[in-house]
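writing this on my phone so excuse typos. first protein, seq and then structure
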Amino acid sequence: MPARKLPVVGVMGSGTTAEPHLAGPLGTWLASQDCHLLCGGGGGVMSEVARAFVEAAPAHGRQGLVIGVLPGTFPEDTVVPRGAPIPPPGYPNPYVELPIFTHLPSRGGEGHGAHSRNHINVLSSDVIVALPGGPGTASEVQLAMEYGKPVVLLTGK
């Protein structure tokens, strides 16, 4: 019998502002939906939605995991990169259960470029839910539209 594949919901938003009035209830609701939560693995919205998802687990019998796709760089003194890339400070947040370490350093306004993990975030998700954010969030929404992924915008307005 083939394994049951849970859908992956990618939640994108600010890496600095948590938007708890949106991200908290969204994470709690997603925990009841038999899905995986994918985020960028950092602070702000990423941490808040992941926290709510994990903390709602006992009440909802959560099946999915929090997946964090992390940016990374190699040490500057390395001539030939060896070992794992180093994520920036604050990555992964404490709620990420399955960290995906990448060698992709670009974030924010560089999120549409070839060296950004935003492509992985979008391509690995079945649907994108975008909360308020900056240029990185905007690039993820743009990529989702380019890749034909469904997008839900939660603005709180």
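second protein below, same order as before
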Amino acid sequence: MSVDTTARVLDPERLRVLTETGLLDSPSVAVLDRLTSLVTRVTGAPVALVSLVDAGRQFFVSAVGLPEPWRERRQTPLSHSFCQYVVSADAPLIISDARADELLCTNLAIPDIGVIAYAGFPLRSPEGRPLGSFCVIDTRPREWSQADLGVVADLAAAVESEIALRLSHTRLLRARKAEARTEQLREVQHAVATSLAEARSSTDAAARTVTAVAGELGWAHGEYWQLGDDEQTLTRIAARTAPGWDAADFSGGSGGFAAHVRATAVPTRVPEAAAPAEATGLGLPVRSGDRVLGVLVFHHDEPLGCDAELLSRLDSVGAHLGRFIERRRADAARRAFERVVSGIDDYVWTVEITPDGALQPVFGSANEAAVFGADLRATPLADLVDPRDAARFAEFRGTVLEGRPGNLEARFIGADGVTRWVWSRAVPRFEEGRVYVDGISTDVTERHRISEQRDELVALVTHELRSPITSIRGYLELVFDDEGSYSPSAEGFLRIVDRKAADLQRLTDDLLDLARLDAGEISVDTRPVSLARLLGDVITDLRPAAEAKHLTIDVVTDGPIVVCVDPARFRQVLTNVVSNAVKYTPDGGRVIARAGAADGVATVSVADTGIGIPADQYPRLFERFFRTSNAVQEGIKGTGLGLAITKAIVERHGGTIAAHPGEPCGTVFEITLPEASP
């Protein structure tokens, strides 16, 4: 028969209680020696033991009659132990002749110690865990009488009482020590809280925290290392050394240690390999949420006692200091921000999107009345919206609530009755599971007034110029028809006049188109058109201009593509885009026009190897009268109206137009349209 003794013997909780008795490796205990001596006299057994079974060994707290060398060693390996089976079974073990016992016949206690007969009773903790055995041993076979076993059992109970008394005493001392430690750590937290309440700055707060912690815990040296704005550099901004100590004894390698703690972002002991109770140095990250703001470092010439409770309390101290520092930084940043905001005319604001879908104001600059004509703390913004723009305002609000960037230009009627145009931009920001929206609103009433006046002037000038220019070109045609009416030398001047008149006519036509588009007076007469054929016709018309500059101009189409467009207007779109590519591409360059369709969307792209567009100017590319800075510098003529007209016509067809940089140079314009149903 074989018995597995491992599980109960190696039970971690049993071993913990065994250590807690304080009897392992202790000197002999007089009261237990009297009990082992008494049991040998009463039973006549030559050997009696109080044996505690540890992991891998049994230790004799008391032993009578044990032969050498075991009497001096006061322990044996478990290979020489009968008591381990008492613990494993948690029951008495009574053996008359171990040599005849299937379980024990091979145990080395028989030949090495002379154990033949054995009677052992379990010694249990107050919670009932078997810790060892109280046993008597004979060196010859023996039948144990009931009287003998009764005496051994009674004395085992007395040994158990002594063990329970020692456990109770140990636990009481530990509880008192823990209470004192807890109270000390509470005092540390209280001292830190008091210090931070009195601190005038982040540096002052760090110095006070170091002093409070090191002072209350009696540690020799403490430091605080602050993380710089670059999120890399650590600078020691506070240090405290107790009287009678030399800071040089502790601070030599603190910078590298602090950097290590900052990198790992976890409490770290010095030396790292030391057991928690033996560490003489400690580094603690100071956090605000998940961000490490700095590192607290403490040293002493004796172990600091870095148990779990100490680390927990000091982590709380670090969090308290981190919140203080972050608050001070936030206050300083807010004051600086408000100083900047106070110097601009725009209204700067922040709202939070609450879980129930509301917009909760967080910040608003002090000039809302100048922008909106009302105090927004007293009047909801929605109440000021001009009814004509209510739908656009609702769309903007919905975009903001979805946490997406938004842009709105709308009219608001202030408390003073004045209607103002306000341009608002909003960008979402996500912090610690919360959604904020930062925005800026600008009064653009004056810009709208100027724009309206400009449009009126453009319309007036267009109509006033159109008739004279038409007349001039008509008379020039009559002159050219009568070749004998002018001299050869005058023809050159007349041709110049004709070209300039043509330029003016194109300009007035563009201006008139814009005016009509703004007024909604231009309709599009759509019909199914072959996109490839229309694009090919435009390329054919512009090929001579491209060849004059030695440009390669190609067209690539992906089969038959049909779109519903106004042929004349969409030809105007393609002509504008392709002619721009030719105009802005230097001699020897290349222009490629492609037409394709996928998923019901037709696409035209025109790529060139021209001078390109500065990256910061793409957003303004389709504005009226806008010309890129490099086009102006190159001296390339233009009015800045073609792309504005092109965009308006494309959008009138339900399409889009966009531009992006080409590879490796130049620009790519891309137009999309719904593909016609078959």
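The domain at 527-674 is CATH 3.30.565.10 (Heat Shock Protein 90). thats all i got for now
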